[in-house]
Design a protein that fits this description.
- Helix content is 71%, strand content 8%.
- It is α+β, with helices and mostly antiparallel strands.
- Among the domains are: 17-98; 190-341, OmpA-like domain (60s Ribosomal Protein L30, Chain: A, 2-Layer Sandwich), CATH 3.30.1330.
- The chain has a 5-stranded mixed sheet.
- The longest helix is centred in the middle third of the chain and has 93 residues, at 115-207.
- This is OmpA-like domain-containing protein.
Length: 343
């Protein structure tokens, strides 16, 4: 039994040496980390110290610059004060110069007793003369510039006068041309009125005295029933006969009027106020009046009248000769008008 116990004791494992080695290793690591930390702190301290030193130098330089700026400002104020003082002294010297110059002129005989003062004043007077000479040179330069400007202004005024003169001449010519044009137009109008009177007189002779064909002012008026069936634009047989006579009168008029006289015959269609049938060809009186005017123009062209001398226009019910709702008024308002106009 004792032998067995001894064997059991001998078989136990001894952990202590390993633990000591581990602790030693850990201690070495900690010492290494502490060394690294201390070195880092050392270098960081040195860097911070260097930056503090540089910052201190910069602060010193800034302070020096601030002092220099203050000195510069103080020097500038002193110089400005000196300039002001010199200006005041110059004014005083100029006044004194004038006073002394008067005394010199009054006491020319006593100049020997005050030669020193006179020499000083002479020097000051020479300085003033040099200043005056420079001022006079500047004044002369300004006078030359002013003279040049005056010459430029005079040249511009001359050009403006010439332009205004040309404008006045142009206005005079335009006025003369306008007067001559008005006279020519008046002559043309009178000439056209004469031809219109002759034309209407000739139509009266051709068509005779009829109640359904008449002259109203400067228009020759056909009642619609003379030329067209009710509500239609086709010319009836009686209307063709009347339009044949009208075409002969227009052709005779074309031969009489000189070619340089501008004129046209405007054929105007008119209706009464009653609406067109909803089942008819025309949706409005306007369309009916225009179609009738075009029918007359086409018929006259077929009879040899120049298309350049004809114009068709439709007015519907919007230009009645008389207002009212009676059949007689309706009949008057339904018409074809022929008017001679200038183009």
């Amino acid at each position: 039994m004792s032998l067995a116990r001894g064997r059991r004791r001998d078989t136990r494992i001894d952990y202590w040496p390993g633990f000591v080695d581990a602790m030693a290793t850990l201690l070495l690591v900690i010492i290494f980390l502490l060394s690294v930390f201390m070195l880092s702190q050392f270098f960081l301290t040195r860097e911070i110290t260097g930056k503090d030193t540089a910052l201190s130098r910069l602060n010193s330089q800034i302070a020096e610059l601030t002092e220099l700026l203050a000195l510069e400002r103080a020097g500038k104020r002193e110089v400005e004060d000196q300039v002001g003082t010199l200006r005041s002294s110059l004014t005083a010297v100029e006044g004194e110069k004038g006073r002394l110059q008067g005394l010199i002129e009054q006491q020319a005989g006593a100049a020997s007793s005050s030669s020193g003062a006179v020499e000083t004043l002479g020097t000051q007077l020479d300085d003033e003369k040099r200043v005056s000479a420079r001022a006079l040179a500047q004044v002369e330069l300004l006078n030359q510039q002013i003279s040049a400007l005056r010459r430029q202004i005079a040249a511009l005024e001359t050009a403006l006068d010439a332009s205004e003169s040309r404008d006045r001449e142009s206005q005079t010519k335009i006025s003369d041309l306008g007067k001559r044009l008005n006279v020519a137009l008046a002559q043309r109008v009178q000439e056209l009125q004469r031809y219109r009177s002759d034309f209407f007189g000739r139509l009266r002779e051709i068509l005779g005295s009829r109640s359904d064909i008449r002259v109203v002012g400067d228009r020759f008026v056909f009642q619609s029933e003379v030329l067209f069936p009710v509500g239609q634009e086709t010319i009836n047989d009686a209307g063709r006969a009347d339009l044949d006579k009208l075409a002969l009168a227009i052709l005779e008029l074309e031969r009489q009027i000189p070619t340089e006289v501008a004129w046209t015959l405007r054929v105007d269609g008119h209706t009464d106020v009653r609406p067109t049938s909803s089942t008819g060809r025309f949706r409005s009186n306007w369309e009916l009046s225009a179609a009738r005017a075009i029918s007359v123009v086409r018929y006259l062209i077929d009879r040899g009248v120049s298309p350049k001398r004809l114009v068709a226009a439709g007015f519907g019910e919007y230009q009645p000769l008389e207002e009212g709702t009676s059949e007689e008024i309706y009949a008057k308002n339904r018409r074809i008008e022929i008017r001679m106009t200038d183009r």
